[in-house]
Amino acid sequence: MDAEEFRRRGREMVDYVADYLENIEKRHVYPDVEPGYLRSLIPSEAPEEPESYEDIMKDVERVIMPGVTHWHSPNFFAYFPTGSSYPAMLADMLCGAIGCIGFSWAASPACTELETVMLDWLGKMLQLPECFIAGTSGQGGGVIQGTASEATLMALLAARCKAIRSVQSKHPEKSESDIVSKLVAYTSEQAHSSVERAALIGGVTMKKVPNDHRYSLRPDVFKQMLEEDKAGGLIPFFLCATLGTTSSCAFDPLTDLGPICNSEKMWLHVDAAYAGSAFICPEFRPLMKGIEFADSFNFNPHKWLLINFDCSAMWVRKRTDIIGAFKVEPLYLKHENQESGLVTDYRHWQIPLGRRFRSLKMWFVFRLYGTKGLQAYIRKHVALAKEFESLVRADKRFEICAEVILGLVCFRLKGTNELNQALLKRITKSREIHLVPCQLSGRFVLRFAVCARTTESHHIHQAWRHITQLTFELLQEPCH
Ligand SMILES: *Cc1c(COP(=O)(O)O)cnc(C)c1O
């Protein structure tokens, strides 16, 4: 493909993408394929001779689309949203064209510098405490990670390194493995599974702190666990608190947990993967009260801020904590402008070496929407969730299972778990809308998350009509 053909195919692809998104509602949101469906549709080996572009595009419809779950359909209410917007897609195209690998400042100065400034812009949009803003001389700063999971892992590993050094400064005779075997990390029972995985990868023990009736971590029990663990010779070093849990969008009480962590010299990482985007709105900022106690904070603009995957924003209070933990410097990666207030080498802030020019997506989206446009977007989704909540509340057969704070509604049919499982099965099978369940206090609960950029009030009403119709059919059956 030469530049001339690329121009033509590029225009065609833009049309294909716009058509796909404009007509996405005509497709079933959830695919109807069996595992292994794809292998039989394409050859078992790569072609020896080049093929034609037309043939490939034909196969997109024949092979790919039947197996796609359409996350950007306005009838998609599963998981949490994944961001998408035209400006972000265009910026990603440019990112692909520049195609730099921005592991150090010198490897592509614009890639590094735009990222630092965009994380400052975003941090200021949220009104994060000053310590997280890089500026030109700040001790903290932001970085784009691929996912919230990586951010949690980075925070845990940095905390682990800091804890080992701290113990060794007082007891130089203690070996690293001896110390690591005593380290304990904590999180709530409602934390995302990636938090537990971070501890598995980091090779440290993690304990789950029980929740209260609102699914928030209980600080009194946390404190008690710390006392018992310290008395048992263990070393508490890390807490991952969640703002907006995945199951029910619950918030851990940072104003209680923060001071405990600070006085115990434990690292406090705050995972706000979904909810963080809402903090650009002043009315939702009270939900992150206590953020000033955190050592690191992370949320996913790729979830709810109109930026296509991947873009997970992470801020640290002290950049030296994170850089110091992972610095390895072979000669081929060194450059003349070594780390200073102005020069950031982001490879020290993350697990891989390579990194894409992801801040372009932020720059395009922030400028084209403006903070006001982004705030309006968040508010619209929250209003749609409230609308769905009131539809559920008006139907006595159903109950709401957790406070609706942002764009997620947890609900169920009053009755057995089996009944609710049967309802979800029907919803999934009909493929008109897509939902996933969660478990709250041993109960099988349906999660309704407002996800797509194009979801409107009539989609919410349509979805509810569909759910009540399937409920009607289900309750007609004699076995219930
Ligand atoms: C979605 C989610 C995650 C995982 O996000 P990734 O970016 O896919 O790793 C982590 N924590 C919470 C609370 C989430 O909702």
UniProtKB/TrEMBL annotation:
<keyword id="KW-0456">Lyase</keyword>
<comment type="similarity">
    <text>Belongs to the group II decarboxylase family.</text>
</comment>
<protein>
    <recommendedName>
        <fullName>Aromatic-L-amino-acid decarboxylase</fullName>
        <ecNumber>4.1.1.28</ecNumber>
    </recommendedName>
</protein>
<dbReference type="GO" id="GO:0042427">
    <property type="term" value="P:serotonin biosynthetic process"/>
</dbReference>
<dbReference type="GO" id="GO:0019752">
    <property type="term" value="P:carboxylic acid metabolic process"/>
</dbReference>
<dbReference type="InterPro" id="IPR021115">
    <property type="entry name" value="Pyridoxal-P_BS"/>
</dbReference>
<dbReference type="InterPro" id="IPR010977">
    <property type="entry name" value="Aromatic_deC"/>
</dbReference>
<dbReference type="InterPro" id="IPR015422">
    <property type="entry name" value="PyrdxlP-dep_Trfase_small"/>
</dbReference>
<keyword id="KW-0127">Catecholamine biosynthesis</keyword>
<dbReference type="InterPro" id="IPR015424">
    <property type="entry name" value="PyrdxlP-dep_Trfase"/>
</dbReference>
<dbReference type="GO" id="GO:0030170">
    <property type="term" value="F:pyridoxal phosphate binding"/>
</dbReference>
<dbReference type="InterPro" id="IPR015421">
    <property type="entry name" value="PyrdxlP-dep_Trfase_major"/>
</dbReference>
<dbReference type="GO" id="GO:0005737">
    <property type="term" value="C:cytoplasm"/>
</dbReference>
<comment type="pathway">
    <text>Catecholamine biosynthesis; dopamine biosynthesis; dopamine from L-tyrosine: step 2/2.</text>
</comment>
<comment type="subunit">
    <text>Homodimer.</text>
</comment>
<feature type="modified residue" description="N6-(pyridoxal phosphate)lysine">
    <location>
        <position position="303"/>
    </location>
</feature>
<keyword id="KW-0210">Decarboxylase</keyword>
<dbReference type="InterPro" id="IPR002129">
    <property type="entry name" value="PyrdxlP-dep_de-COase"/>
</dbReference>
<keyword id="KW-0663">Pyridoxal phosphate</keyword>
<dbReference type="GO" id="GO:0042423">
    <property type="term" value="P:catecholamine biosynthetic process"/>
</dbReference>
<dbReference type="Pfam" id="PF00282">
    <property type="entry name" value="Pyridoxal_deC"/>
</dbReference>
<dbReference type="GO" id="GO:0006520">
    <property type="term" value="P:amino acid metabolic process"/>
</dbReference>
<dbReference type="GO" id="GO:0004058">
    <property type="term" value="F:aromatic-L-amino-acid decarboxylase activity"/>
</dbReference>
